[in-house]
Amino acid sequence: MFAAFPLLALPVVIYNLVVLTFSQGFKSADASSRLSQPLFSISMTSRVEWAISSGDLILAVALVVLFIELLKSTTSHRVVIINHALSMMLFVACLVEFLLAPAFATSTFFLLTLMVVLDVLAGFIVTIASTRRDIDFNDRG
């Protein structure tokens, strides 16, 4: 049953938790500036400091999770259909948050929402393509 759970919900939940720690929560209009504040920096060999923010970390985690989700969508188990439905509900929730809550009108959350919709589309496309390959429409008789 764990295979039915859309893993991209994890970065979305992390974003929600980060936003809820702001003083005004979902109504916080300064979420973009707070997400772009550096958490730490890494010294590069070019002698430049690479500043990493919480928004960067959330997107990095989401990209890794998107890769895993794309790998999951290539399986042909029955639970994949449930995963597609849950991913679609996650996309609808992300879209509602993005359009209605000021704290979610950020580039970071837009990219998360884009990853969720890509997961939904890839899942449906892979499922349709594998189904078409499994069903032979040619009459060989």
Number of helices: 5
Which bin fits the share of residues in helices? Answer: 55-70%
Mean pLDDT: 86
User: Main β-sheet, in a few words?
Assistant: 2 strands, antiparallel
Low-confidence stretches: none
Strand content: 5-15%
Written description of the protein model:
It is a single chain. This protein has 141 residues and is mainly alpha-helical. It has one domain (2-19, 38-134). Helix content is 61%, strand content 8%. The chain contains five helices and two strands, in the order ααββααα. The protein has a two-stranded antiparallel ribbon with strand order 1-2. A hairpin with a 5-residue loop joins β1 and β2 (49-53). α4 (79-100) runs antiparallel to α5. The protein is globular. The protein starts with 8 loop residues before the first helix and ends in a 7-residue tail after the last helix.
